[in-house]
Design a protein that fits this description.
Family: Belongs to the eIF-2-beta/eIF-5 family.
Pfam family, one: W2
Structural class: alpha+beta
Helix content: 55-70%
Number of helices: 19
CATH topology of one domain: Serine Threonine Protein Phosphatase 5, Tetratricopeptide repeat
CATH class of one domain: Mainly Alpha
Strand content: 5-15%
CATH architecture of one domain: Alpha Horseshoe
Keywords: GTP-binding, Initiation factor, Nucleotide-binding, Protein biosynthesis
GO molecular function: GTP binding; translation initiation factor activity
Strand order of the largest sheet: 3-4-6-5
Distance between the termini: 19 Å
Protein name: W2 domain-containing protein
Amino acid sequence: MALQNIGASNRNDAFYRYKMPKMVTKIEGKGNGIKTNIVNNVEIAKALGRPASYTTKYFGCELGAQSKFDQKTGTSLVNGAHSTAKLAELLEAFIKRYVQCYGCGNPETEIIITKTQMVNLKCAACGFISEVDMRDKLTTFILKNPPEAKKGGKDKKAMRRAEKERLKEGEAADEAQKKLKKKAPSNGKESSSSKVSKNHTSDEDISPKHDESVQEEEDDEDDDGIQWQTDTSREAAEKRMKEQLSAATAELVMLSVEEEEPNKLVQVMKEYLKKGSPLSELKTFISSLSDPPQDVMDALVNTLFDGVSKKFAEEVIKKSKYIAAAMQEDGSQMHLLNSIGSFFRKKDNEEVGKEVARVLKALYDKDIIEEELVLEWYQKGLTGADKSSSVWKNVEPFVDWLQTADSETEGED
């Protein structure tokens, strides 16, 4: 049976994974009793994840003709003689209204009837809730004939429980490893050296603290020497902060440093993009910057999406060519994911936060980020310092969709 991509917008995508059979129709009867039989309507409806009675009823509503679906035989009939092209066109309209997510366009949605008798579509990929126009005639039929509840909820819960248990085991293993390192026996040399480092008797450990005090008191003439002796990267600065200050004070200082440093980079990034240089040169420009790669990616994301509040995912799709052009060979995908997470945390807005899954779905569809790294980033986030952030809750539908799609692919193989 010939197959085609679901959704007219995906017609020419050779790698699109969602497919349905091409419609086959047959004109039956004569005169006033003439009818159109959608021969493979059951197979089409199954591919769309909708009852075959919905598509049959929709054809009848749109054509102003009586329609009937026989549950026992699977026969779909619409009164009158209608061409396959016309019915296929109506099917595309049905897909757009009742199958595809209004947010990301994914056809893997579920019809939900709300307590207020509204018909919504919940996307399994990005978690977006699409509100169907209740003025449409088919909505009345759907309310009277709601879809059967999908099975497999228990399996999903079991998978989540197993994942949580694995995370707990991982945390316990990390803690045990840390304790072993602390209790590791030494010949006395390490302990004495650690005491020396704590008392700042080592020249290497004294220099950062000494340099900072000298930098405040002396003129700028000595700065060049200090720059060569002191590691000014964010990681080194954070380490020195924690050594010299309390945890709370160090966090405040690092926050102020983070606010100042990217501002300079953002300015540099804005000036470069304003020049209108070819996209092919963006990668070279980024690799020429001496700042840490994560800071550079943060600056790029902030430059591209500064001031965006609503419809953030649409902006990402529009400007994805800049992100794709900026990607380096190693580590760029993880830096991009970290930047997106940081961007949404700073927004601290529930409506904006819900779009993070749609953003990841858009980047995934354009092959900018890969599944393995998304899952790795998500697992690190759940166990990291920001594990309580709402970002991970909003990302969860997309992660579940990735894992489900994976298991389905393995089953097909």
